[in-house]
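Fold this sequence, please.
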Amino acid sequence: MTRFSKANWLPRQLEERLRVVGEQFRLARLRRNLTIEQVAERAQCSRLTVAKLEKGLPTVSLGVVLRVLYALQLDEDILRLAQDDKLGRIIQDLELKDRKRASRK
């Protein structure tokens, strides 16, 4: 079990989402009929690291996640992160409503 520290602490909602993502990695690997060893070799990491990723542990680095996505031929999926930023667009639109006049020349 991972020791508690500020580095691996997450709110409960994020822990659950991370577990779901880990399960999605596991299912993607199994659909391709690959072992953990094969994915680890292709991603150039250890079997333990791939197992931690599939368990949804927060200590796996983003670089490893990218390499595993690449090993599973899912690396294009990383571009979907924060793609549809509804809140950011709303904030941006609110700031655009403050109209200013152009200077006279």
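The mean pLDDT is 89. The CA atoms of residues 29 and 35 lie 7 Å apart.
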